[in-house]
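Late entry, evening session. Most of the bench is empty. Finally got around to the prediction I had been postponing all week. Sequence below, unchanged from the version circulated by S.P.
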Amino acid sequence: MVLNLGEQIAKYRKERGYSQDELSQYSGISLRTIQRIEKGSVQPRGYTLRALSETLKIEISELEQESSPSNIEVEKKARTLNSLGLLVLIFPLVSIVIQFFYWTKHKQLLSNHVPSKKVLSFQILWIIAVVITMSLIHILTYLLTGQSVYGHFPIRMLAYVLLLIANICIIFYGAIKMNQNATKFLSGVPALV
């Protein structure tokens, strides 16, 4: 099993017989930062990574090699994250919650994978667009007709179905691009995660 960078640092620290506090004192890195690194909530870079590797008497390249997950594993998780978007067909608003939990569970692998960030960001924006569109249609219908529903024509349903079709098309587009190992797609979507 491949250990993440924080787990590697914790492993080497324990092999050297250091407590987190001792590693903090010897390296000059704050205790809180070391705790966050080992927990995996922070990725050390630059000075911090150099100070830790010097204190632990290991090469930076050794840490990076041992901690880098295989691209196959990252791509597999990214494809699963994208596919979870199809749950929108069954559970429209719950699907984003499921995707977000999946993202959180595999954040260590997916946090540096730009397509995954774009996929999840798109789904968040899609949910926001659905809520705003449905609200605007309801408000405009009421303002123009004085009724919450105008006749028998389900304009809200039509708008929702069009947004749903757009979402599904983006999910399939993302799947195609991920299969082509394209790193740049959904370039107009800001990274919200």
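Two things to note before I forget:
The radius of gyration is 23 Å.
The chain has a mean pLDDT of 82.
Will write this up properly tomorrow.
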